[in-house]
Write a structure and sequence with these properties.
This protein is an alpha/beta fold. The chain has two domains: 139 residues, Cytidine Deaminase, domain 2; 173 residues, Dihydrofolate Reductase, subunit A, CATH 3.40.430. The chain has nine helices and 15 strands. The strands form three sheets. It has an eight-stranded mixed sheet, sandwiched between helices. α4 links the parallel β4 and β5. α3 runs parallel beside α4. The longest helix has 12 residues. Converts 2,5-diamino-6-(ribosylamino)-4(3h)-pyrimidinone 5'-phosphate into 5-amino-6-(ribosylamino)-2,4(1h,3h)-pyrimidinedione 5'-phosphate. One of its GO terms (molecular function) is diaminohydroxyphosphoribosylaminopyrimidine deaminase activity. Its EC number is 3.5.4.26, 1.1.1.193.
């Protein structure tokens, strides 16, 4: 048994389940679903490899007949469009006869937008839409792609205490320790594509892969920001705005260098900052980035919100989300 919880708690739990599907659920969004009856979880699911089964289908299979009269929490509106890969989740839910469905996000995909909710309500099921920060964060890549036509962008920076990313000579291996580097690889594993600038590519020849045991197959597509010649096995874009051409990517992880970081910030294309700060002082080293076009300090305030902080060995990790109107 699990003690009584509120709707937001259950949606947050569904969002944590959803993270298991990222990024292998592509091209579908990573959705999480939890079925609750008398404060007990009787079914749970998340979008699986290649997008099927959907989260609701997996959770309903686990719950079986007990889903009748239950409450179903799902991070995204159940799909309502026809597919040759199986019945819609809205139809599956109608057949299961839950008492109530609580969802966090209305699907922006025009094939389903509002239709899933309408189908459930016509069948007599109570449907409530409850915005959830946790669910929105878990769907960030899908929502950004649907609404802005580009992937969700995380900019990663490994810094000294005085804001340097390397010695004056360019040496940067390693500013942070093993724990921070392992955490960075876990973030790579949750991304569809990873990007560096042409200067970093030529100077460091980075592998841009995932080197965590058991997750090597999660290595993302490699992308280089450069006006140079094409590189075998690597996608080339000439400017940050061309990330909309990375059609298969919901999540883009930008790792540098300073020029790429500045260009993405200047174009207002960074949605999240992942900062790893090591307890070292370099002095006279290479700064994280140069001019990003900031005209005054007033416009700099209120742009970023701290959403996560943790200690990784001797290093500090902080994540900031871009605050957009």
């Amino acid at each position: 048994m699990i003690g009584p919880r509120g709707d937001q708690d259950w949606l947050a739990a569904a969002a944590r389940l959803a993270s298991r599907g990222r990024p292998v659920s592509a091209p579908n969004p990573a959705v999480g679903c939890i079925i609750v009856k008398q404060d007990r979880v009787i079914g749970r699911g998340w979008t699986r490899v290649g997008g099927r089964p959907h989260a609701e289908a997996a959770a309903l299979e686990q719950a079986g007949q007990d889903a009748r009269g239950a409450t179903i929490y799902v991070t995204l509106e159940p799909c309502a469009h026809e597919s040759d890969r199986g019945p819609s989740c809205a139809d599956l839910l109608v057949a299961a006869r839950p008492q109530r469905v609580v969802l966090a996000e209305v699907d922006p995909d025009r094939r389903t937008h509002g239709a899933g909710i309408a189908r459930l309500r016509r069948s007599g099921i109570t449907v409530e839409t409850l915005p959830s920060p946790a669910a929105a964060a878990s769907l960030a890549g899908f929502l950004t792609r649907e609404r802005l036509g580009r992937p969700h962008v995380t900019l990663k920076l490994a810094l000294s205490l005085d804001g340097c990313i390397a010695l004056a000579s360019g040496e940067s291996q390693w500013i942070t320790g093993e724990e921070a580097r392992a955490h960075c690889h876990s973030r790579r594993a949750m991304s569809d594509a990873i990007l560096v600038g042409g200067g970093t590519w030529r100077a460091d020849k980075p592998r841009l892969d995932v080197r965590l045991p058991g997750l090597e197959d999660r290595s993302p597509q490699r992308v280089v920001l450069t006006r140079g010649v094409p590189i075998d096995g690597v996608r080339i874009i000439n400017e940050p705005a061309q990330i909309d051409r990375l059609e298969a990517a919901q999540y883009l992880y930008v790792e540098g260098g300073a020029g790429a970081a500045a260009s993405f910030l200047a174009e207002n294309l960074v949605d999240r900052l992942d900062i790893y700060r090591a307890p070292i002082v370099i002095g006279g080293g290479k700064p994280a980035f140069g001019n990003i076009g900031l005209a005054d300090l007033t416009s700099a305030h209120g742009s970023w919100k701290l959403v996560e902080r943790r200690q990784l060995g001797s290093d500090c990790y902080e994540a900031y989300e871009r605050q957009r109107s």
